[in-house]
Amino acid sequence: MQFTAQEIAFLLNGTVEGDPLVPVNQLAKIEEAGAGALSFLANPKYEQYLYSTNASIVIVNNDLVLAEPVKATLIRVENAYSAFSVLLEKYNTIKLNKSGIEQPCFIHPSAQIGQNVYVGAFTYIGPGVKLGDNSKVYPNTYIADNVIVGKNSTLFSGVKVYFDCVIGDNVIIHSGAIIGSDGFGFAPSADGTYQKISQIGNVILEDNVEVGSNTTIDRATMGSTIIRKGVKLDNLVQVAHNVEIGQNTVVASQTGISGSAKIGESVVLGGQVGVVGHISIAKGSQVQGQSGIGRTITEENKKWAGSPAVPYSNNMRSQVVIQRLPELEKRIEELEKIIAELRKDSVH
173 Cβ partners below 8 Å, 6+ apart? Predict the structure, then answer.
């Protein structure tokens, strides 16, 4: 799709410096852009590329003072980074704008399919499913019985949603994610074997949730595993049965959250964080990557680090002490020698 500088400036409420009719049909980084590309400059560290870039159009801040002439047409805006992010979203929307039902696929006669939906080839949509208006289900996706998918939601290729799960509006689920698989529930028997406990609950993803590729969210044993509004889960995250994650919380890759843990709203969990089961993490907590949360956190808006996790500042002080251990060991040995000499002298 092709746009002119004039059209882009109108969309971004910007002003054009140069040829208002120059066309672009792609987005690119300023240091790599060629003719026909649109780029942006927000970080002063990259200003050198503005004078050598082959991009046809570059979005810049209003207050940028040029050090030398530029070949590209400029669009001046209040905030170049924010403006370019708007264009990225528009570009992505256009690129992913699919509709219609491809064949072959299976849609059960009892399923309710909304208006302007897209269903990709080799998709299975089971009995009692409700698929909301403007939602998109990409090829090779499995949606089991009685699943509800809200409006404007996107399930990318290879997503699996087990029976009875509920997905809200404006939800994005990336390829390979599994929603509603069995929770890890087994009862030990006297003979040393384990008896499976049936998992009859479901998973609820509220509005504006995003789930990364190959992330797994287990269904509840009873009741629901709940991911509240605005939560963002990275790739390769494990959310166990009966977990509840508060709204606007973000969870980075390879984090594991054990069963029945309650994560508060606006929490940040770094990569490879481990959370034990049946505990709570207070609102606004920030947990450094590779930390282990082994107990309930009640204090809101605090930073935590380490395994087991302790307050962030304490962990930083501990790291300093650990680095000094060889020196401290040497000093202790010297002190022990001095004490030994003093004891020897006192005997004589």
Answer: 153, 154, 155, 156, 159, 161, 167, 179, 205, 210, 211
Q: Could you confirm whether 278 is annotated as catalytic?
A: no
CATH for 100-314 is 2.160.10.10
Annotated active-site residue in 108, 174, 241, 278:
241
3-state secondary structure at position 231: coil
Superfamily classification of domain 3-95 = MurE/MurF, N-terminal domain (3.40.1390.10)
- Secondary structure (H, E, C), 258-290: CCCCEECCCCEECCCCEECCCCEECCCCEECCC
At position 227, the amino acid (one-letter code) is: I
Q: What is the pLDDT of residues 196-230, one digit of tens each?
A: 999 999 999 999 999 999 999 999 999 999 999 99
Tens of pLDDT, residue by residue over 174-196, are: 999 999 999 999 999 999 999 99
